[in-house]
Amino acid sequence: MPEDLNLVFKALADPTRRQLLDRLHEKNGQTLGELCGSLAMARQSASQHLSVLEAANLVSTVWHGREKLHYLNPVPLHEVQERWISTFETPRLRALSAVRQSAEEQAMPTPPTYVYVTYIKASPEQVWKALTDADLTARYWGHRNESDWQEGATWQHVRTDGSRISDVTGTVLEVRPPERLVITFPGSDEQRNGTPSRVTFTIEPHQDIVRLTVRHDDIRTAADLEALSAGWPAVLANLKSLLETGDVLPQAPWEMHAELRDAQMAHTD
Question: What average pLDDT score do residues 199-204 get?
Fold first, then answer.
């Protein structure tokens, strides 16, 4: 069994850590104090459990001012589901999941947040350029992100097939090179008709590497959350490869995700 999955199962084996994940599922983005209060747990004990969950990549953290916020990362759980559960029970589980998602969309009072963290061997200036240079985004994203990147300006996610069609048009909300970029990011048709979601890129240097955090707020539908949970890791894996090796991955990672999804659907038919 791969070591990363060993860490996941070890983390999930403890009921207290499962409770912490449940609390983050109920309300994502909590401080250590909030988690301790909801579980009547000592800070040191909670901190130790959270460290195990972070090591298993089940929890990601983001600094917001002086507060350290904790976010549930569903990716390792999804990998467990892909490796074992979907092979045997996909049809019934998919039907149950559709019912649950429908109920959650009707009852969800607060739009969820998605957080993804990656570490890149590059300078903050290189990462900033990769996020804002249209030619570079075209290489690792398959779209050109075009803007003058001034606060209040429009930015466009433009196809590279020569059609000049913009799949996404948003607004630049905050620009602090090379540390922080905040933009609106309209998603599905339902979201375009309402309040757009918001994406915050945070670039934090540490010696020879950079910690890049993408925080996507105000996600309106479960379908959008599912798409973003697959999309951001794929885009950032390509960005990381480009900056560290000089070239993108040999196969577009979002194409691999689409192939896996189509294979699963064909398996259930």
Answer: 95
- Cα–Cα distance measured from residue 68 to residue 147, given in angstroms and rounded to the nearest whole number: 31
pLDDT tens, 150-181? Answer: 999 999 999 998 888 888 899 999 999 999 99
Q: How far is residue 54's CA from residue 17's CA, in Å, rounded to a whole number?
A: 11
**CATH 3.30.530.20 domain range(s) in the chain:** 112-268
User: What is the reported pTM?
Assistant: 0.62
- Scanning the structure block, which residue is given the tokens 């194409």? 255
**Local structure of 62: helix, strand or coil:** strand
What topology is assigned to 3-73 in CATH?
Arc Repressor Mutant, subunit A (1.10.10)
**Which pair of tokens denotes residue 132?**
């804002």
Pairing assessment for the beta strands 180-185 and 166-176 based on DSSP bridges: antiparallel
* The pLDDT of residue 217 is above 50: yes
* Distances in whole angstroms, Cα of residue 60 to Cα of each of 82, 109, 131, 209: 21, 23, 21, 18
CATH class of the domain at 112-268: alpha beta
Q: Which residues pair with 70 in a beta bridge?
A: 30, 61
Question: What's the confidence (pLDDT) of residue 112?
Answer: 77
Decide if 151 contacts 174 (C-beta within 8 A). Answer: yes
Which of 168, 148, 139 minimizes the C-alpha distance to 156? Answer: 168
Are 167 and 141 spatial neighbours (Cβ–Cβ below 8 Å)? Answer: no
Sheet containing strand 154-159, edge to edge, reads 114-120, 209-217, 197-206, 180-185, 166-176, 154-159, 143-146
Of 155, 156, 153, 149, nearest to 175 by C-alpha is: 149
CA dist., res. 24 & res. 177, Å (int): 31
Beta-carbon contacts of 20 under 8 Å, excluding residues fewer than 6 positions away, are: 35, 39, 46, 49, 50, 53, 59
- Amino acid type, 117: V
Measured between alpha carbons, how far is 133 from 148 in angstroms, rounded to an integer? 10
